[in-house]
Protein 1
Amino acid sequence: MTHITLDAITLSVIQAALQQVCDEMDLTFSRAAFSPVIAEANDRSDGIYSAIDGSLIAQGSQGLPVFVGVMQHSTRTVIEMIAAGRCLPPQPGDIYIVNDPYLGGTHLMDVRFVMPVYRDGNVFCWLSNTGHWPDIGGAVPGGFSASATAVEQEGLRLPPVKLFKKGVLDPEIYAIICSNIRVADQRIGDIKAQAAALLVGQDRLGEILDRYGDQTVSAAIRELRERAAEQMRANIAAIPDGIYRSKAFVDSDGVIDEPLTIALAVEKKDETLTFDFAGSSKPCAGPMNSVLATTLSSVYLAMRHIFPDVPISAGAFEPLVVKSPEGTFLDARYPRPVSGCAAEVSQRIAEAVFAAMVQALPGKVTAAPAGSSGNFALGGHDPARGRDYVMYQISGGGYGGNAWHDGLSNGCSTIGISKSPPVEIMEQAFPVLYRHYALREGSGGAGRHRGGLGLAYEVELLRGEARASFVMDHGRFGPQGVLGGKDGAVNTVTVIRDGKEHVPPHLSKEQDIPLKAGDRVRVGTPGGGGYGNPLERPTEAVRHDVVMGYYTPEEASRLFG
Amino acid sequence: MDEKVPAQSNPARSDSVVAGIDVGGTFTDLILIDGRNGGKVRIAKTPTTLDNQAFGVVSALGATGFSASAIDLIVHGTTTTTNAVLERRLARTGMITTAGFRDVIELGRRTRPQAYGMTGTFVPVIPRNLRLEVAERMEASGSVRVPLDEGAVRQAVQTLLAAGCESLVVHFLHAYANPTHERRAAEIAAELWPNDHITAGHTLLSEAREFERGVTASVNAAVQPILERYVARLRKELAAQGYERDFLIMNGNGGMISARFVAREAAKTVMSGPASGVIAAAYTGRRSGHRNLVTYDMGGTSTDVALIRDAEPAVSNEIELEYAMPIHVPMVAVHTVGAGGGSIARVDAAGLIRVGPESAGASPGPICYGRGGTDPTITDANLVLGRLSPNKLLAVDNPVTVESVARVFEDRIGLFTNLSGVEAAGAVLKLANMKMAGAIRMVSVGRGHDPRDFTLFAFGGAGPLHASALARELGLPRVLVPARPGITNALGCVVADLRHDFVNTLNQPVATLDEQQVHDVLERHRAEGEALIAKEAVKPQAIRISHSADMQFVGQTHLINVPLPSSKVDRATLQDLFEKAYFARFKVELPEIRANLVNLNTSVIGVRPQIDLSTLIDPVGRASTLKKAWLEIRPVWYDGTWHDTPVYARDGLPLDAVIKGPAIIEQMDATTVLEPGDRAKSDADGNLIVEVGSR
């Protein structure tokens, strides 16, 4: 290959162009999708990957954060399996489908498409996207079983197989998938949307290659990777050398009522950060295991929250060394159940990273955010409409106080960017009535800059019978305060049946609690951790909090002096 | 609101004197068309007076030298309400809402300001202590679950009055399904409230989604007194100048409404300025035979982009003014791209050049404005590259030399990238154009349109500087630079029609749709719109009705807008139109899934008489040959090298001249750059039509 020297102009332009390819794929996928998880909640991501090893070249800026870097693992696995003859070799127009968590994934609901892009008869690179399907079969609708003990209970597991062959959907594979999932009739829409996004990417990328030349773009991709690594190293170099330790806890695995510990030691040396999870809990019986790809991605996304200016590419991850967490629940192997990894465990890993890094970068990192997706699923039968339904309520919580200001109230999960559904839409679609949907007063962790407030809501079942399931977290320990700030309020779940209150034994997780008309579910989501000594909070700010009713006068004088 | 206004000396006639006045962030622009004098045009540009925009308006009028009493109609675009929301300089407003739900407008939809970075703040339009709850509850079906506690409403009203509130919002859950509680509470409030600044949520937006409806209503109430005071001040100032008639205000939907009625739906004016620019573009394009346009208005801090198909601007019900500030009423779909002349260029830690998102804004502004700006911006790059003449800069405080600006590019960018100051400026421009093109594509031709069918309509001070390069990036074959690019928004005021938009949610599968219901809804829209237009003092020439449907496949959440041929549309036609529109957008066919009709929309437009734009150019003072129109030849940097480039004064160009790029065409408030390979020619209205050369 001829050596091409690239000037800063060409490099900057090609970087922006590759980014736009991914952004357009993201947009097409969301706008054409059926699953509200993809269309509304943007629970999807699109990117461009190396032909050689699947490493990440560029990723859409509006992709779901938890997918940062995940697809480079699954793309690499596809490349390796093809090389090993365990997967049919690619041809132009082929699209592989894969959702196996242990082959570089998250949980089964995140279904990845992987497509080769050809130039002159050779694979130039791969395009891949992930979309969260609303159902993938398994024991419970939606896939979030809080008490699964093996991956088979969580749904249909697909190794990489060609769903599209030379551009044509394989009706047999499609039939197998549809026979194994719920609400199958609309999946054809999502499959076509997911493929359409890749085809848009292929067209747009082709234009860029035609314009600048394949060799120039290849050289730029190599150079950009090196420069992203340099940029991350430059950020790291500014951190004082040392070892920063932290812990974060998952309430329980959903099966055995004991907290799971994430123990983290981050070593900063020269221009490298080494993340060591030694001492973390062993693989667990319930679905709170994390597969390696998700663990790595969680570290990456936390670092991206800290350094949002570094573009997402494999280069940015180079100076971030994650020691193999083998033997812990952060490197789960078949057949450990994993449905909780993307939604909850990933956020605890990010919280551990924040808690370690805030010691090193107190002016840049926030106290812990609520860090739960707040999944509450209600499945039942509506006698008035004569049909079954599954309702999902996701919810936000308070963000951590930080060097500049108080935490945001009711912010999205750390790993997501999705909006929660309006109460009016929920009440239209399902036989429920919300009795309140409000700021959770007093929930923000006290601090010089206090944590944001969580959410308080209560839902009543109006008709028929239903079963409630919860996959939340932070019920046992609140989001951590830092630098003298207090922890945010813990997550609370109360089920009121026949007027009697029931609290899930695992606090934040339980499955299939039977409800009948008139029964209620009351949830309080966590507040953010406080930042700095609460006694240093300006009197004016405390007074404002009291006038607004964020804290009672008694709470204010107790917490802030 | 039923005050009688004397019928106007019919200003809808084409021989009347009409003035359009647009108040922007920096300048107040005015265009006056003197119909009694053959359509003679007068133009004025005066600094915007931020404290009271009315003074700037009056001084612009004064600058025309035309007596205000001789003007038949003034149409006005204002940023009063936009600024009030963005700067939170709002009227003290209270809210009465359903028990358990007072935090809806503060909670939002669990979002954060940016995807990465866990920081950021949000300030609700109405603070929590002024949001009071009363017992009442509708179910989603519209049936009453808890009756309205009228005593509690009275008490809440009194509490809010005692707290000094000037405006009131009544926002109840599911009021779109059954508004009786909202109506009753508003009635009770009206008995006690000292003014009519009471907004019931369902009256502006009768759709589900309590956060969006609540914020829309809250913004409306909170800007009502501000807009009303402004209108009163302006009326007084205009009266002092001798103008006693009613005047019209440009709404965000691109239609005009009497200043007497505008405050009732004040939220609709938050896009007043941008909408009028798009209306002017559509009007200009229709006359000049360019019916498909991408409008491109580049200002100091941001760039506004809109799509016009077949001379109709796209309308959206889902404008978000800023983070977590949705205004869900029909408005011209203007997308704001975060890059403007003031966007700052720098080199990042990886040694790559970045442009924006930081901006020097208007203050301190680009270095070349001489107001203390020290960061190199896009405007500065244009200066260094010879595209912008140092003599043509408006609003310069202390002139700065081109050499000193070039040196900043060298020191701040060149040193780290091995480029000279000029090369660095060239790189900044190239990258800025590339990024703007990407952002524009996403909101325009990227949505399933063929760029070859579109013309880039460039206006604003900086639009024509970048237009040719952007059109190349976007694959648009031509650029239209209107005769007076710097006063396009004011022109929009002059040419706009009266307009009312209606939305009704049906949310039914097409297969089982009641065709009669569709007809009835659309006909009711028409009747309501015509009645509203009949109330205006200004009488239109004709009424134009357009209908559309927002549709989706059953199970989807996003919508596609499908124009309808008439109100008497049948199910088969709906299905067919939708499938065609969907395939055009996504290249996807889904015969296995049924279509859904979500909203029915109608626009009722009171068409005003055509205004002859050819008077925008002055045939006098034209050079006999192109060469004689040369102002100078100066070196201009195109794509890596200097070209000796002729510079023309636009007013002096021969009317039938064909200008080959490279060339620079200067006029009072804008500079148009033709790249090498471009060919430009004026049309009958004085628009410059640039055929973009191949890349």
Protein 2
Amino acid sequence: MIAYLPLMLRAAGTTLWLSWLAMLIGAFGGTLLALVHMQRIAPFRWLAIAYMEFFRSVPILIVMFFAYYGVPLVLGLDLSPFAAATLALALHASATMSEVVRAGIGSVGHGQWEAAQAAGFTWLQTMRHIIAPQALRVVLPPSIGVFITTLKESSLASIIGYIELTRTGLLVRDSTGGGFAPLLALGVLYFLINYAISQIGAALERRFQTGSRIETVGAMA
Amino acid sequence: MNYTFTLRTIYPYLGELWQAAAVTLWLSSLAIVLSIALGAGIAVLRRSRLRLLRVLGAVYVEIMRNTPLLVILYVVYFAAPAIGIRLSSFVAALLGLTLNSAGYMAEILRAGLIAVAPGQFEAAQSQGMTGWQVFRHVVFPQVFRTIYAPLGNQVIAVILASSLASAVAVEDVASWMQTVGSTSFRFFETFVIAAIVYLVLCQTVNIARLLIGRWLFRQGATR
């Protein structure tokens, strides 16, 4: 078992890479979605709400199944297990992140928009120099929570055959005679990674002292 | 891009879908009820006078919140036979889901208990209330109001998470999607149907809790 530890550590790197990429895409997508949601034109708003409600009410596992098995059939586009997993994770993360970003932008007082407008700022300038820097303080701590959720969800990639940490643990288990130790090692590795990240989140929260905590839905994974 | 959406090939499998939906519903309902009970125990543990018990409760919560459910399910599923217990897929999945969800439930319930100021216990006692009366008339209404929204979120989270039971061979809706999809090559159709089942389940909870919440928390309704 000890001999396999370097292998599992490398696999932990793969898991981190997969979830980081998905989180990055999810954060961009979520920001875009939040901006669409804030538009005055109703159909845009409905579209954003429909997207969020859909990904909040459908398990990520079946989205991953569809991305991996369904997309090649429907679009004739073969996705690798990695691409399918990243896509599903990013779609799910973007739905949660849009809520986080929306709450962040909402936390900046309305008077600041008006003040910026009075000072002759364009929408983009207001966003870039006034709103975003303040919203970021509120957005960052819960984003860490979303990242931890994404990291835990990335274990589902093992089900569609992507060799990340969970799949590696199961493979090690098979090749060491079905023992219990690899599964325990798996749990310990995930715990250490996530606990370390959650401590960063807690530190950020203390540093920014944002009283308003954003509740994220479906954090269990 | 010349894929035609047709449900005709799926018809023969619809009977199994109802069974699968029943499994999903039954599994998540049991897990929710059991994890509230276990979570309540842990929440109380975290308010114990003994430091050791408090630490134990905190460690449990941190482990459950920082480990993927899938790994917990595998540990339960593969570890039980190793120590000589034979668990069916369903029981293993239920156990894993309950253990995991209890970590979240404990935090939700703890936040609810914190919302009751300590002075209120003393005030209620000085009014001559019994332990049960204090719980029924003072603690419960306030705790319930605080935990109502996060509890609803957790119920939905458990329904979604129950889909992972398919990884330990429980024949639920996610498993239906995969088996029927791979025998009929109709993954788009099975995805749409499975998504609708989960959407209906989750949105029913979502809408019900909005309506019930509006009715329960009318001005002064909790008195």
